[in-house]
Amino acid sequence: MSNIKVIITKDYEELSEKAFEVMAEVLRNKPDAVLGLATGSTPIGLYQKMIEDCKNGGISYKKVKTVNLDEYVGLTPNNDQSYRYFMRHNLLDHIDIDLNNTNIENGVAADLPAECARYDALLSTLPRDVQVLGIGANGHIAFNEPGTPFDSQTHVVDLTENTIQMNARFFASEADVPRKALTMGLKGIMEAKKILILASGASKADAVFKTVRGEVTEEVPASILQNHPNCVLIADEEAASLL
Ligand code: F6R
């Protein structure tokens, strides 16, 4: 039996509102919460609501800490394609958080396995109160593609040809797309006390169905969330159309 609590919304706007309600409840109960954050297009609406609320005198992030899921290898934090840059641009620079309390893997570390070990040690000192996730059309979460072991920790991944092609639109040419990334593993993701996974649009419908109703299998990385005791999936009608 799936433990995942599913909330279906009429559209992306309502999805973002509901996601903000979940996030706000975590933060009201615990002003020094640790937030696990994701990049990608899906959480942007949630981040905009967090920014709007903070600017209007709502929740303060002064005591909040964040950890992110993943980062490209080879991009400096100032590169506008890096996930560090994405997070600053889409959230962190616009709320009252101390940037020293925000964490993401270092994609330009000289020793990548050592960087992964550093990140896992950091995660164990910063237990997440909530982890925000998007989902890939193939069921990936973070850069954990189908076939990634459920017990994986932070690791280096070779991006698949498909992911490189999908991401090429953000770069000057396909040759500029990084070939590797650092990603939190599935075990690390499952350690968060609460998971908030967001899915929008028809291209996610199959992945959402398999995540909620399918077999728990490494072929669908997000299906592991069925084993999480406190997972909320918010999907708009298109993403939830097969449920
Ligand atoms: C983001 C991440 C990815 C995305 C996923 C969905 O940090 O790790 O797994 O969550 O690819 O991306 P969008 O939201 O752009 O559809």
Description:
With 243 residues, this protein is of the alpha/beta class. It has a single domain (5-137, 147-236), classed as Rossmann fold, CATH 3.40.50.1360. Helix content is 30%, strand content 17%. It is built from 7 helices and 10 strands. It has helices at residues 12-29, 44-55, 83-90, 112-125, 161-167, 186-190, 205-213, and strands at residues 5-9, 34-37, 65-68, 70-72, 102-103, 130-133, 155-158, 180-183, 195-199, 231-236. The strands form 2 sheets. Strands 1-10-9-6-2-3-5 form a 7-stranded parallel beta sheet, sandwiched between helices. A 3-stranded antiparallel beta sheet has the order 4-8-7, covered by helices on one side. Helix 1 crosses helix 2. The model has no long low-confidence stretch (mean pLDDT 96). Fructose -6-phosphate binds next to loops.
How much helicity do the residues have? 25-40%
Q: Can you write the helix and strand succession as a string?
A: EHEHEEHEHEEHEHEHE
Q: If you consult CATH, what is the topology?
A: Rossmann fold
Radius of gyration: 17 Å
The proportion of residues in beta strands is 15-25%
Bound molecules: fructose -6-phosphate
For the sheet with most strands, the description reads:
7 strands, parallel
Write the layout of secondary structure elements.
Elements (H helix, E strand, L loop, with lengths): L4 E5 L2 H18 L4 E4 L6 H12 L9 E4 L1 E3 L10 H8 L11 E2 L8 H14 L4 E4 L21 E4 L2 H7 L12 E4 L2 H5 L4 E5 L5 H9 L17 E6 L7
Parallel strand pairs: 1-10, 2-3, 2-6, 3-5, 6-9, 9-10
Antiparallel strand pairs: 4-8, 7-8
Bound molecules: fructose -6-phosphate.
